[in-house]
Amino acid sequence: MTAQPPSDSPAHLRGAVDLSSLGSPAPSAPPAGGAEGGGSWVIPDADQRLLQQLVQLSAQVPVLLHLHVPGDASSDALYRQFADAVDAQAGRLVLARIDVAADPSVLQALGLGAGPAVMAVVAGQPVPLVNQEVPAETLEQLMGEILEVARENGVAGSVPAVAPARADAAEPAPAAPPVPPLHRAAHAALAADDLPGAVAAWEEALKDTPADPVAQQGLSAARLMLRTRDADAAAVRSAAADAPDDAAAQLAVADLDVLGGHVEDAFARLVRFIALHPGEDRETVRAHLVDLYTVVGVDDPRVTASRRRLAAALF
């Protein structure tokens, strides 16, 4: 199920899978079940029948979907991490865990091959987040970014507890840090489909804080989107196939591959080019590859593996 969202959806959400037709219509939001002494905003046993209500709820607060694989240690760790982070926000977000082994049609509807994963649903439209546990600092920043994107799209409410307090809850975590003004400006530009404006905002943010990893990744990603915005994928791939020694042609295909999720293919293409071309193009391609590492995330295992292959190709 890959129905497109309506044309008036926020620009940065266009092309996402539309969840609005999933599940059975329901007259009310998920039931509140706060127990004495507090409640939780985590629904541990959601299923496809509840999805319609969750989609409706995402017009009021962001809804995170944990696509859970029972018996998978990484899935359990991902759930605990996001459950604690969501409960720390006390109603500004809701998390629902769905057993995708019991109901694989949810994965199919979302266009995913397998779990575990966490997706955010904002105003009815899902945005992929992560498929593995992330460092605490990254998680805090991610929660702030989710709330900021939601606010920019008119989703800034709060809801009462939707479940009893969790027995496995960790000690209360600090609330997500405020999003810096230039980060907000970059997100606003993205929401308005203004990629040059987003690039400019991230550049200004890095002038203030050159080592800011979020701004570094945001700038690299915005530049990638700008480079590929008007690309004709068939023409780009044909040109690269006809000119295997042309650095620009190979870089253009690698950009499309990263944007399309074929990260390992992109990295392998550029490492291979570097290994076979010791001339002046080598540094250009190496620098571009390092920038794509930033887009994907320096802690991503695919980046770690590619860095090892790059070192071997260089030395």
From TrEMBL:
Residues annotated as transmembrane: none
Region (Disordered): 1-41
Database matches in Pfam families: TPR_20
The protein's name in its UniProt record: Putative thioredoxin
Domain of life of the native organism: Bacteria
InterPro entries, per the entry: Thioredoxin-like_sf, TPR-like_helical_dom_sf
